[in-house]
Structure formats: C-alpha cells, structure tokens
Amino acid sequence: MNLPVSEVKAAPSATARTTFAALWRPALVQAFVKLDPRQLKRAPVMLVVELTAIFTTLLCLLPSDVPTGVSVQIAVWLWFTVLFANFAEALAEGRGKARADSLKAGSQGLNARRRMASGEFEVVPASDLRKGDVVRVDAGEMIPGDGEVIEGIAAVNEAAITGESAPVIRESGGDRSAVTGNTRLVSDWLLVQITSNPGESTLDRMIALVEGAKRQKTPNEVALDILLIGLTLIFLVVVVTLQPFAHFAGGSIPMVFLVALLVTLIPTTIGGLLSAIGIAGMDRLVRLNVIARSGRAVEAAGDVHVLLLDKTGTITFGNRRCSAVHAAPGITARELGEGALLASLADDTAEGKSIVDYLRQLHDFTPPDAAHLVPVAFSAETRLSGVDFGAQRYRKGAVDSVLAFVGMQRLDLPAALAREVDRIAQSGGTPLLVCVDKRLLGVIHLKDVVKPGIRERFAELRKLGIRTVMVTGDNPLTAAAIAAEAGVDDVLAEATPEKKLARIRQEQNDGRLVAMCGDGANDAPALAQADVGMAMNDGTQAAREAANMVDLDSDPTKLLDVVQVGKELLVTRGALTTFSIANDVAKYFAILPALFAAIYPQLGVLNLMQLASPQSAIVSAIVFNALIIVVLIPLALRGVRVQAASAAHLLRRNLLIYGLGGLLVPFVGIKLIDLALNALHLV
C-alpha cells in the first residue's frame, strides 16, 4: 500500500563553506551573550578576568590615587579581553552551526511510512520513529532515520550528509546494508529497520558535534584547565600578598594596579583561546565528513603510535583484475581457459568478472546453459568458489585451499607451477589455483594496484613516529610484496577477526595507542578494542556501533587525515600554552618595576623597556594582554601545521618559535603600545 509521504527539500550540501564575513556579526552578538558567568564557568581563567573587570569598573567610581582616565582604560581593556575570548569561541562555534542549521533544515517536517503489526503502512512524523520500527521508502523520498535495509535494493543520494552527488547502492544483507537518515532514494524502494531512537542518529550526532556548546571537554583539555586554574590560584595568592608587603615597606599599591597585575600574570592567552582551539579542531574533523562519538577519540588520534589499515580499498584500489593465466604441465591453454571460466561464471565479485572478461577475449567459449550449473559460493571456511557441472567439480581459490580440495601438499605442486605461484606472489599479485575434481589445471594471476601517493603518506607518518600495519587476508608472500611497494612498516597476513583483535591488544599491552578502520561485522571486535576505531558509513551497523568514529564518505584513507587533525589539535594547544606562559616574563619586567617604583627606586634598573611611567606600563601591559588574543584567533581556528618530524623535533620547534616568541614579542609589543599611549596623551 503506497501512501503519500510529505517531505521537505534536501538540505544544502553539508560541505558548503562559511566565510568570516557571514560569521563575525552573530559571533559578536554571542560574545556578549557569553558574558553570562554560567557560561564562562567552562573557562575558569576568563571567568576570573570578567570578575576583575567588574571589580575594576566599580573602582572607577571610587576615589583613588590613580587618575580616573587610567582606571577607565584598564577596565575597558579588561572587558575587551573577555569579549574577544568569547568572540573567538563563538566564531569557532559559528563555522559549525552554519552547517548544523542546513542539516536541521533537511529533517524538519519529514514524515515516514511505518509498517504496522497488520502489515499495512501508516504515515507518521519521522520524529516518532523508534529503534526497531520498519519503514518503506520509495524512489524520490527521504530516508527518515538511520537503519538497516532488510528488503530491496536501491540507489541512494547521500549528498545531504556527505556532499557527494553520485548515488550509492544499498541493499539487504552484506556490508552495504546501512543507510543514513536524511538521504534520498533515487530509484526503486527499500524496507528499512530503524536502528536509532530520536536524538541518536548520525544526523543528530553531527548536529550536536558541530554545535560547540554541546561538545564535551577532552581529558587533555580538562588537564590543561587544572593547570590554568592552578596557575591562577598561585598568582592570586602572590598578588594578594603584595599589598601587605608594600605596607610593611611603608608604601601602598593602588588596587586597580593589583587587579591589572593579576590579569596579566594569569595565562589569559591560552585561557581565552582554549575553547576555540578545541571547537575548531572538532570542526576540522566534521569538514572531513567524520563524526566522532567523543572528543577523546580525536585527541587519541593525535597520540596514535600504530595504524592498522586494510589493504583492499585503503592501500590499494581493491579492483584486482586478471592479468594472466598459466597452465599446469600437461594442460593445454584451452583446458585451463575453460576450467577457469566455468569456475568463475557464478562469481559476482569484481575479480570473478575480470577473469571471465579476460578469458573471453582470449578464447571463443560458449558457456553451458546456467540451468546445468550448480554454483558454489565462496565461503570463509573453504576459501573456494566454482560450479558443479554434471559430475565434474570446477573450483578456484587460494593456493592452500585448492591443494586441500585436491588432496595435495605444497611440496606436491609441479615445479613449474610452484615457481609461477611464487613469482606471482612475490610480484605483489594474488595467485588463484584452478582445478577440476582432483586435477590441477593452472594458476590465475590477479593484480592489485597500490594507490598513487600512498607511499609518501606512510613516509610522513613514519616521521611523526607512527608505525603502519597492513591488514590483509592474502597469503604472507603476496602481503609482503604489496607491503614493500606501499611502504608500510609491518604486515598482518591471512587476517581473521581473532588475529586483528589479538594484534591490537598486543600493541596496547606494550603501551601504544592503536587506530584502525573497518566496515564489516567481522571488524567490530577490533574497532571496539582500538583506541581510535573508524567505521565506514556504508558498512554494517555492528561496525558503526563498535567504532568511536564514523566516516560519512566511507573512505578508509580518511583515517590518515583524522590522525593529522588530532596531532594539529594537540600541537596547537601546546604551542599556544607555551606562548601564553612565556610572555608572562615580559609582563613581570613591565609591571613589577612600575608597582614598586615609589617604594624601591632601585627597581628602576628592571625597567628594561624604558616605559614612560607606572601608569603607562600598567595600561600597556593590559592592552597587549587583550590584543594578543585578537592576533592569535586565526592561529587557534586554523591550527598549527604539523610537520613530518619526531616528537622531540616538534618539541624543540615549538619551544623555539612559541617559547622564544612568547618571550620576545611582549617586549616589543608593550614598548610600542607605551609609545602610542604617550604620543596620544592617554596616560
């Protein structure tokens, strides 16, 4: 029974770019909204700055030894510091929210055709669907939620989610049965069993991820928050003790100066940019069309030591094709050709079809009627496929499997055929033996093509200290040849789910973080065990549930980009933390001599920057403290580019650039601001 289903237009491409010009106005509004202390409690350092700004504003209304104009300037720049820290966070959130809004538009007003117990269908809002419900989707309609195809085959346009306009085939059974909500059928029909409740779908997770306010802090961010809070408390104690110390020496320090000192000494730079760095890192991941279930997975990607990658589809194109056939001694080329053709007629894989195409070009065969053939499907246990034709059994498959079928050992292989098998394997090809009953006919040479540029990418990962492991079901010789051509560091050949799981546990027991990608149900245990498990969106539901990341483009090589984003996130945070702490040194030389100039004139020798007056020194430091956040916003959003180098080299580079820069830039910046303030007679 077909009922009309109302729906909205498909959402714009999720890869639509957002520009600064479109984002700065709403981000500026949000900067003021985020002044709410309940929101700033997530950024404790900036909460302290806001409280000091409020306190300084009140001090401007009270009599003081400090000119009112100077106090007002300090208060204004403190508010400026908080607002621009909020602006950086809002700008980072805005880049994702623009995408989230387009995704939300695609799901509003969507209805679904749900199957009732009677077998009839009823139209209900898509938001009413629950896990386990079965819906029917016809050509032109939107799939109302994440699910598994239980009946039918159809082409699906996933552009609303992935941005790719080319439709993909989804069908029941196998590893291509998962469908994503808010995608559109372009042909045929499907019966889909919903696999998520409202708020739990891929679309919902993507919207929640890109809306930065809902993003959970990662362990690294929490640890950095603890460090920043600790430093803030230490400097608070230091500042509080300065006034009693000044009284003991027979002097006094204006309260507004003490407030300024506190703000400039606490790590406001990293405190103001920390949230923006994290949100921008997650945004870069979303722009790769990868959904992370947690921020921890992204950070773990940055610390990965070992990368497990499937050979087929990741390292190679996966389209192995028949390139040659070699007959066994005593077998004619025609006998081998007929046997290999018969053994491949029922094989619907790309490899099987390539064998049939290759042999039909060589020989003029007329295959028997399909009604007289009994197909034998490939199975993981036998690793054989073929047909039974009358009393004869034609088979092709892995060398050891075919030998077992005919009752032979490796040593029993004819020498010429054994040499050909070894040559194919050593060249990176896959040898398939062909037999009829107990008689070997020859070997088929399948070639797998390594993707261009993959060797260079592995070399970059190696320089970053990441070891790559190729996972394949091929025999060790074939696997070794492909591994040598691709440039991977290690190989796991003849891999089974148990072998993958054991390898990951072994690496983790040795103290290493492991990442892997997969799409099949047999990958689920390993994906769940890995520190970073990335499932393909077109894979099985079991794989997607086991992984902590889902790649909407179903591109296994994306895992390399995820590792890069994770490293950029960690390095950016570390670089700006180094800069923030290092630039406190210059502020000491700017403010401390100014505070105690009247009490201890000898401290004037520490006025290395030759600042004009105590008031000028204080205001210059406060202005620099605010402006440096503005200057660093683009770096926080873009991230520090990670070069292919060892961890020690990266540490030295960060210390040299951001540590030394954090020491020198404030000296120059504060002096220039001092000159400008005095030239304009603002102090």
From TrEMBL:
* Predominant location category: membrane
Annotated Mg(2+) binding lies at: D519, D523
Q: Name one GO cellular component term.
A: plasma membrane
According to its UniProt record, which residues of this chain constitute the active site?
D310 (4-aspartylphosphate intermediate)
What does the record list as coiled-coil region(s)?
none
Keywords, A to Z? Answer: ATP-binding, Cell membrane, Ion transport, Magnesium, Membrane, Metal-binding, Nucleotide-binding, Phosphoprotein, Potassium, Potassium transport, Translocase, Transmembrane, Transmembrane helix, Transport
Topology class, membrane = Multi-pass membrane protein
Q: What class of enzyme is it?
A: translocase
Protein's job: Part of the high-affinity ATP-driven potassium transport (or Kdp) system, which catalyzes the hydrolysis of ATP coupled with the electrogenic transport of potassium into the cytoplasm. This subunit is responsible for energy coupling to the transport system and for the release of the potassium ions to the cytoplasm.
Which family does the entry's similarity section mention? Belongs to the cation transport ATPase (P-type) (TC 3.A.3) family. Type IA subfamily.
Name of this protein: Potassium-transporting ATPase ATP-binding subunit
Organism for this UniProt entry: Pseudomonas putida (Arthrobacter siderocapsulatus)
List the gene name: kdpB
